[in-house]
Design brief:
The chain is mostly helical and 273 residues long. 56% of the residues lie in helices and 8% in strands. The protein has a 3-stranded antiparallel β-sheet. The chain has a two-stranded antiparallel ribbon with strand order 4-5. It has a two-stranded antiparallel sheet with strand order 6-7. Strand 4 and strand 5 form a beta hairpin.
C-alpha cells in the first residue's frame, strides 16, 4: 500500500485485554500512553475536565471512571477502555496544571480550582495557556487579549452596520412576497435567534432578525446574509411563477350569469335580423 503523509496507524488497545478497569486506570494514570502539551490536546482536555467537574467540588478515584463514562463513553466502549481514557484525562489535567491532586487514606482525590478555560488553541493550531500564569505574565496577556477583543468587536460592528440596509431589504422582500413566511427552528436560524422561541412568523420577529447579525463575527455575518439572500430569491421566483389562484365560487357564478345574459342578448339580436 502506498505511503501517505496523512496516514496514521490504527490505535492499538491490545494492552487492555485481560485487565480489569481498576488495573487499567492505575497503570494509565501512572504512565499515560497518549497526549501531549502541544497542538489541540491541552484545550481538549481542559474542555472535558470542565464538564467532568461541573456541579462537583472534588472527584474521588473510586467514582472517577463511572462519572467519566456517564459523560463521554459510547455504547461500544468497554469498561477497560473507559477507565483508560478517564485515567489519561486526569493525568493530563494534573500535568497541565488544570487539576490539583491529593491523596486521602491512600486514595487519589482531584479538585479543579479554576473552572474557566486555562488552555486554548491559537489560529496556527498551537496550544496556548491563557490562565494560571505568573502574575506579571498573566497581566500582560490579559491586556493583549482585551485589546484584541476590542479590535474584533470594532471590526464586527463596522461590518454589521455595512450590512444593515442590505439585510433589511432582503427581510422586507421575503415578508412582502410571502406574508406567511416562518422563521424555522433549525440550523442558522437557531444560531442567529437563540432567544426567539422559534419557530415564529417572520413578520412577528422582524426587529430581532434585522439586529441578529450584529451579534455575529464577520464570517458568520456573511453566511447569514447569503442565507437570507437565497430565501429572498426563492420567494421572488415563487411569486413570479406562482399559478393563479383558483376562481372563487362567487366569481364563477357571476361569470356564468354574465355569460348567460350575453348569450340571451346575442339570441335576441339574431331574431331581429
Amino acid at each position: 500500500m502506498a505511503w501517505h503523509r496523512y496516514r496514521r496507524e490504527a490505535p492499538d488497545y491490545s494492552h487492555l485485554a485481560g485487565r480489569t478497569p481498576e488495573q487499567v486506570f492505575a497503570e494509565t494514570y501512572a504512565r499515560p500512553t497518549f497526549g501531549d502539551s502541544h497542538g489541540e490536546w491541552p484545550a481538549r482536555v481542559n474542555r472535558q475536565l470542565i464538564h467532568l467537574f461541573e456541579g462537583r467540588e472534588r472527584l474521588h478515584v473510586d467514582e472517577a471512571v463511572a462519572v467519566y463514562g456517564a459523560m463521554f463513553a459510547e455504547p461500544r466502549h468497554t469498561p477497560a477502555f473507559t477507565a483508560y481514557r478517564a485515567a489519561n484525562t486526569l493525568h493530563w489535567g494534573v500535568r497541565l496544571g488544570i487539576l490539583t491532586e491529593a491523596v486521602e487514606a491512600g486514595r487519589y482525590v482531584w479538585t479543579m480550582p479554576d473552572r474557566q478555560p486555562r488552555w486554548e488553541t491559537d489560529s496556527k493550531g498551537r496550544a496556548r495557556q491563557v490562565r494560571g500564569l505568573p502574575d506579571g505574565a498573566q497581566a500582560d496577556l490579559n491586556r493583549k487579549r482585551a485589546a484584541a477583543a476590542k479590535a474584533r468587536a470594532t471590526i464586527q460592528e463596522r461590518e454589521a452596520q455595512a450590512r444593515d440596509a442590505a439585510i433589511e431589504a432582503l427581510v422586507n422582500d421575503i415578508i412582502i412576497l410571502n406574508p406567511d413566511a416562518v422563521a424555522p427552528d433549525d440550523g442558522l436560524w437557531r444560531e442567529a435567534l437563540p432567544n426567539a422561541g422559534l419557530p415564529q412568523p417572520l413578520i412577528a420577529i422582524r426587529p430581532m432578525v434585522l439586529e441578529a447579525h450584529h451579534a455575529m463575527e464577520p464570517r458568520r455575518q456573511r453566511r447569514w446574509h447569503s442565507h437570507l439572500a437565497v430565501i429572498a430569491e426563492r420567494a421572488r421566483w415563487e411569486a413570479y411563477y406562482r399559478p393563479p389562484l383558483p376562481m372563487q365560487p362567487a366569481e364563477a357564478e357571476a361569470e356564468a350569469v354574465a355569460q348567460a345574459l350575453q348569450d340571451a342578448d346575442d339570441a335576441a339580436l339574431a331574431d331581429l335580423r
